[in-house]
Amino acid sequence: MSTVNQTIDVEVPVSVAYNQWTQFESFPEFMKGVEAVEQIDETALHFSTNVGGVKRDYNAQILEQVPDSLVSWASIDGPRNSGSVRFEPLSADRTRVSVDIEWEPETFAEKAGSLVGVDDLRVAADLDKFKDFIEKRGGETGAWRGTVAAGDVEDTGLTAGLGSTSTLPPIDPDLRAAADTDPAEPTTEPTTEPSDRALADEDLRRGQYTEGDYGAERVGDVPVEDLEGDYTVDEDRGGGRPKE
To answer: Distance between CA 65 and CA 70 in Å, rounded?
Structure first.
C-alpha cells in the first residue's frame, strides 16, 4: 500500500472549507486526474479518473462525516484506496486541511511513481488548487451538514438550516384583535362615523327583509300566534295568506 499525507492552511473559516469539500462533484475543479464525480446518494460516490493516461471508474463510500471536522471514505470496487480529510480551525478565518490517503498502485508506472513520491506531489498540488479555488471565491459552492457514522447517515443536517419564516399570509389586524379579546369581558366600541364597509353591511342586512304583511319587521320579532295557519297561494295577489 502507498500512503500520502499532506497539509495546507487556507484563509477561510472552517465551515467554508468543510462545506466546499462536501461538494464532491466539484472535485474536478481542483483535483488533477479526476474527470467527474457523481454523488449517488448521501454516502455513495462514483469516480471517473484519468491518471497518466490510465482511465478508471470506481465507486466509493463515505464512512465517517462530522461537520467542520472530518470526511473519510473507502473505495468499494476498482483500485483500492481509502483516506480522510480533517479540518482544524486555526482562527476565525483560517483553517488547516489535512489529507491522509492509502492506495494500492496497480501499473508499473504507478508503483514507480509511488516510490519516488509522485503521489505526494500530486496531492500537494491538488491542495494548492483547492486553496486557490476557495480563497478566490470567498465562500463555498454548497454544503451538506449531515453526519455519517460507519457508512450510515445518522443525521441529515436538514433541521440546522430551517428558519422560522412563515409562508402563511399575514393575519388581518382586525381579526387578530378580535381573537385577542376575552369574550367574557364586555368591550366598548369607540364612537366614530360608520365606515363605507359598515354602511354596506347595513344595506345587506336591510336587504334580508322585504315589505309585506308585517311591514319592515323582522320575522323573528312577530308573535308566533300571528304566524299560525295554513298558507295557500292567492292567485290575485300572487302571495301567501292564511286560509279562513
So the answer is: 5
